[in-house]
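pinning this so it doesn't scroll away 📌
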Amino acid sequence: MTNQQQEMIEYTTQEVIGYLMEDNGITMEQAMGQFYMSDTFDKLSDVETGLYMEGSFYIYELLKREIQKKLR
């Protein structure tokens, strides 16, 4: 993984955690736990998927879908 890829993943992670906090009224710790334990984060962290090149809002939408599927 290159430094640029790592920076993109970190930036996107921060953005997604911010979206979770804002939309759900949860603490940073709760949002971090929810995101870091998700399949979406696993895919984002795997540079082979190329997901790190997508926008943070797109990734947040994937996460929301994942969460909804787990609630069913």
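📌 and the second one:
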Amino acid sequence: MPPIVGRVLREPLLHFLAIGLLLFWLFALVNDDQRERANRIEITDADIEQLVAIFRKQWQRPPKPQELQSLIDSRVREEVLYREALALGLDENDTIVRRRLAQKVEFLMGDASGVTEPDDVTLQVYYDENAERYREPPRLSFSHIYFNTDRRGEQAAKDTQALLERLRAASPRVTQAPDEGDPFMLPRIYVDKRTDEIARDFGSTFAEQISVLEPKQWHGPVVSGYGLHLVYVGSREDARLLPLEQVRSRVANDWLVEQRQVADEIIYERLHSRYEISVVGQQSKED
């Protein structure tokens, strides 16, 4: 080897240049590979199985070949637009995206909570501690006569009182009077209805009033959002505590929900402790 070539090969600057070129080549190779992966959209067998399962659940049959191709095309389109949105930074400072991602983390927290089905002893204790949740409201069977206060005005109260006196004096006892009063959009007879169901039709005040009326006679006037009513309570079943055997699934579900909420809060507090929280605007107001 000529002496000049040896001196050149031993030159440190040449070594640094060679190393720099090698690093540049490796960096370009890695970047090209990353770009290739980033620009590659792969629909796997698992993806196709998922698409088929969703279609089958909705339509109760497997998709036809052209339908499956349409599903795949839609998935590809969604992925293309999703990646372009990320490239444009459209996911940043978007309230809906932030909320959706936060919800996903909450779902993951729920999966990680490790809460399992309660045993019989746990279920009984929870049921006893929360018995009021499983108390069924009173049930009533009643008929009513409606008086439209918008149409009758002040006369409605007088008409109601006059009919009440006639009904109470009638012999044999009258339990229904469909020809009396004014037309009404809802049924005139209700059989074995819970007070919360009655409240949905007439309002809570009406339901509370008739729930304490003495059965087997006419009462009134009872006020609802529609006007005045004369009410005949045929039967009343007082509120009762439903036995555990009858509401077991409800009790178990309520227990699971509460336990998962507790577990989620513990996980959140651990995550929260990783961050230093500073609410600058609030501090400024306090100062």
